């Protein structure tokens, strides 16, 4: 009986949250129209920025549904999911952690990331990429996307971690793994539906 009651309460909570978000979006849309019609461009712009933030958050929730339940043997820690929508240069930001703290892995998606230009330059300019890379960095391909793989060795523990950065259109997806191997991190990245995420985030 308690389980059924909990399920019903959870469904009501989810539906109420979705309804409130739709109401916020509609409220901001109405405010933007009203302000624009009245010639109040500053408040119209502010309401539109709020709408875009709400859209980013809705998109982020859809992206979280696409992320795998595990990266290798590291289960998702969904209670630590981070999801924000931004305005201006900063857009959507989604992150999910996997595994215990001492073997933490994560997936991070940032729309309009400031790192996109520098990573794109390394990946798309062979001469420059060759000059800037060192033994701890290399170019790889994941699901047809060029990516940058960085290796870090912790000076205290001597454990190796990897950071894989995959630029997709205007979105940067980063997979990090502490106490991991290169093959593990690449295998994890191949379980993520990059094409679908790029399509949603653009």
Mean pLDDT, as a whole number? 80
What's the SSE pattern? HHEEEEHHEEEEHH
Taking all Cα atoms into account, the compactness measure Rg is 20 Å
Strand order of the largest sheet: 1-2-3-4-8-7-6-5
Helix/strand class? alpha+beta
Principal-axes geometry comes out as elongated
Distance between the termini: 44 Å
Give the helix level as a range of percent: 40-55%
- The figure for the number of domains is 1
Which features would summarize this protein structure in a list?
202 residues; alpha+beta; eight-stranded antiparallel β-sheet
Short description:
This protein is α+β, with helices and mostly antiparallel strands. It has six helices and eight strands; from the N terminus they run H-H-E-E-E-E-H-H-E-E-E-E-H-H. An eight-stranded antiparallel sheet has the order 1-2-3-4-8-7-6-5.
Q: What do you see in this structure?
A:
The protein has six helices and eight strands. With 202 residues, the protein is of the alpha+beta class. The chain has one domain. An eight-stranded antiparallel sheet has the order 1-2-3-4-8-7-6-5. A hairpin with a 2-residue loop joins strand 7 (160-168) and strand 8. Helix 1 (2-37) runs antiparallel to helix 2 and helix 2 (41-66) runs antiparallel to helix 6 (194-201). Residues 9-20 have low confidence and may be disordered.
SSE order and pairing:
Layout: H1 2-37, H2 41-66, E1 70-71, E2 74-84, E3 93-98, E4 105-111, H3 116-124, H4 126-132, E5 137-142, E6 145-153, E7 160-168, E8 171-178, H5 182-189, H6 194-201
């Amino acid at each position: 009986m308690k389980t059924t009651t909990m399920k019903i309460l959870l469904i009501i909570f989810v539906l109420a949250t979705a309804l409130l978000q739709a109401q916020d979006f509609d409220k901001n849309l109405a405010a933007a129209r009203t302000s624009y019609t009245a010639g109040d461009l500053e408040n119209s712009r502010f309401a539109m920025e709020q709408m875009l933030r709400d859209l980013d958050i809705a998109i982020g929730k859809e992206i979280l549904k696409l992320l795998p339940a595990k990266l290798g043997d590291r289960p998702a820690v969904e209670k630590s999911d981070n999801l924000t929508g931004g305005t201006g240069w900063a857009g959507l930001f989604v992150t999910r952690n996997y595994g215990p703290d001492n073997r933490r892995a994560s997936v991070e998606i940032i729309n309009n990331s400031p790192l996109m230009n520098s990573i794109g330059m390394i990946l798309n300019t062979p001469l420059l990429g060759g000059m800037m890379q060192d033994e701890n960095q290399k170019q790889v391909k994941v699901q047809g996307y060029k990516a940058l793989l960085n290796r870090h060795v912790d000076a205290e523990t001597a454990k190796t971690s990897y950071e894989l950065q995959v630029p997709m259109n205007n979105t940067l997806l980063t997979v990090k793994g502490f106490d991991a191997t290169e093959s593990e991190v690449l295998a994890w990245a191949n379980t993520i539906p990059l094409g679908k995420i790029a399509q949603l985030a653009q």
